[in-house]
Design goal:
single chain; about 350 residues; alpha/beta; 9-stranded mixed β-sheet; about 15% strand; disordered N terminus
Amino acid sequence: MHVDRPPRRTVAVLAGLSCLFLPLLAHVPKATAATADRAPGAGSPAATATAVGPGAMAAAPYEYLGWGNPQKPADVMVATGVKWFTLAFVLSDGTCNPKWDGDRALTGGSDQAAIDSIRAAGGDIVVSAGGWSGNKLGEKCSSASALAGAYQKVIDAYRLKALDIDIEDTEFAKATVRQRVVDALKIVKTRNPGIVTYVTMGTTPTGPDANGKDLIERGAAAGLDNDGWVVMPFDFGGHTGTMGAATVSALDGLKAAVKSAYGYSDDAAHRHIGVSSMNGKTDESDETVTTTDFRTILGYAQQHHIARFAFWSVNRDRACGSGGDADACSGVSQSPYDFTRIVVQYKG
């Protein structure tokens, strides 16, 4: 949805409410830090990091630190046992240059301090670039090599082991930009052997739409060894049954699309897909994602060893007070971190 506040994935609009665990398993892929003077495309081919489950990295809920009253990540870690967070969002500053929300420097500020606190407590981060609102790097960078360079600035700033591209709105809608993102990620994988990459997109209840399928097919055609093609199973524009069942249906459709494009076995295809749900009330009046739905998703993830189980967001993982903001609370009756405590059970 288009919103007036700083860029973020979504905002719920229901009346009155408009208002991840265990130590990182030994098989978690380790990234090699890239040096600033290496040119895109340099280095050895990226390691395949999907033969086994990805461990604690697989459960990394989103937290948005750009506005409002976000919880301190270290406090969330103590309360829930979560070790990894997906921090959102890195955007363009109007040029092919990455900044938090398009206006806060990557290093030296509050975002850096939050990341330092997570690592000091034994955790780590995935950085997410994109989201619904704001200027997208995929559009502001004029070539795949330039876009890869922008992503590399983020990787270098934080010595990242994982990068998420949350491709939405106009960045998702343009075929040339979808191709640019794919080609840039292939460069990133080459420059940073072992780095984990996720591509996160919207979905229908039966799987990716035409743009989503095209993006996956472009990835396969380019030889992009993407670790997780991830769908956001909400804001469907209509669905039947529970949100948990709709999510399973969307994941089955995603698995089929990835299997078809890459020629994977069923097991390999499952290990290359992921889910990023939304807790509680979504943007649509007929959608409420409950803890029961989250347990359904957890069961699917555990059965199939999918690449990722995340959700939007830690900020929302608490009940609303009077006049509560819907990007700061779930809109449902809950105890703090009920949803995070389910996600943190996923070990890859």
